[in-house]
Amino acid sequence: MAPPLAGVVRLAAASRVLVLSLSILARLLFRPYDTSASLNPPCLSSSSPSAPSSPLTNLSAAVSSLAVWDGVHFARPAECGYEYEQSFAFLPLLPASIALLARSLFAPLVPVLGYRAVLVLSGYVLNNVAFVAAAAYFYRLSVLILKDRKAAYRASVLFCFNPASVFYSSLYSESLYALFSLGGLFYLFSGANTVAAIMLALSGSARSNGALNAGYFCFQALLQAYDAAVRKKRPLFAIQALVAAALRTIFIFLPFFAFQAYAYLNICVHGSSEELRPWCKTKVPLLYGFIQSHYWGVGFLRYFQVKQLPNFLLASPVLSLAVYSIIHYTKMLHQLFRTTSIHMQIITALEESSVESCKGSDDMTVSRSELSTGSTNKTQGNSKVKQRKSIATEKASATFHDTMSANQNIKEIQDEGSILLLPFVLHLAFMTFTAFFVMHVQVSTRFLSASPPIYWAAAHILASPNCSSRRWSYLICVYFIAYILLGSLLFSNFYPFT
């Protein structure tokens, strides 16, 4: 049987083939509602490479038209840079990545298809590959947190076929965000803090909510500071942990604020407009918030209108699943803290993180020692093995009951959950509140799609044997399948979806 990780990778790749096939089929069978995406005026600052006049011009136009909805706004900065104020709402990681691919790996295709079509093609290739990698990280992170490979695998299957699948296979930033956020969290809880900080910072340059991932470092620092101050009685170590977390938090926020500074320099300092824009005059001139409010009407309760009721209905499945996830894991943590002290939970979490960070080096050391003692010591090794067996048997009789008791306690803690679930629940709760009360609620499906607790809770429902859970399992499967089909049909043809 293939390892679960390999199975997840294959499923993720198969899901991308399925979604792309459905999207292409929908484009062939139905006419797009809005064809303005095919319009591509020249760049304001400089002319970009254009499609050649050749028999492949129709193919170039077909590829370029695959940039739909926000994909148009990601392709334009990649081709022309940030020309308009509202274009700064689309963070630079995806445009910069596809521009790099178009000018390097896919550069030979530019004379054939034209630069814009190659940009779109680069985005599709990049995002689908990134999704497969994100699914692998999702599985590895789920194993770390849930301590259950079967549950992690079920949740990973759900992630591979999640309701926002069409966005992960389009010219959107969801795939890059999922890759770097899930990868960063995996390395964080594995003890590789430097790699984790880099990946989480990159997630913040893909989507603005990526900066919220700094909260996981804050949570880790609180655990380490508590352990150092209370258990080890070393307050200096506690201060060191808090300072290190503060520096990593600043590092994660840095890409987002650097991009805002770039916008301020381009529009407020070196802009061609004679009159300063309103946001330039504020004490903290952040363009991103101004764009969301001014151009799209984003704000607290501003979307609560009768005419938006269909959009609330469209988002209700993922919001319901998110609320269930929050309640389910909150109850689990409450029960956990009633049966096991927070002190013991913190120690267990830190020890597990230490074990994960040392596991690779320990395996390497064991392998090297086995190779170095090889065939020349076989006879001596056999006699020592017998000695060790007799000693081990004597020790085992004395420590058997203690070991079984300790293992039983550990198993009970793992079955009830872990304190490591807490930051995931808090993060999801904040995201769900924002999606429902502040944002355009219909984007909740993709906004929450990279949040692991949603899939962990759904996988828990699918594995539950009682009758009510079976009914909910059926509804979850119908929801996932229906949104994949609807998304492939509607979104790819420029019809409103999520």
From TrEMBL:
Cellular compartments per GO CC: endoplasmic reticulum membrane
InterPro entries per the UniProt record, alphabetical: PIG-V/Gpi18
Main location: endoplasmic reticulum
Domain of life assignment: Eukaryota
Region (Disordered): 359-388
Protein localization: Endoplasmic reticulum membrane
Keywords from the named record: Endoplasmic reticulum, Glycosyltransferase, GPI-anchor biosynthesis, Membrane, Transferase, Transmembrane, Transmembrane helix
GO molecular function, one term: glycosyltransferase activity
Transmembrane intervals: 88-106, 118-139, 151-171, 177-202, 241-265, 311-329, 419-439, 472-495
Signal peptide (UniProt feature, chain positions): none
GO biological process entries: GPI anchor biosynthetic process
Membrane topology of this protein: Multi-pass membrane protein
Biased composition (Polar residues): 364-384
Pathway this chain belongs to: Glycolipid biosynthesis; glycosylphosphatidylinositol-anchor biosynthesis
Record-listed E.C. numbers: 2.4.1.-
Functional summary from the UniProt entry: Mannosyltransferase involved in glycosylphosphatidylinositol-anchor biosynthesis.
Family, similarity comment: Belongs to the PIGV family.
Name of the protein in question: GPI mannosyltransferase 2
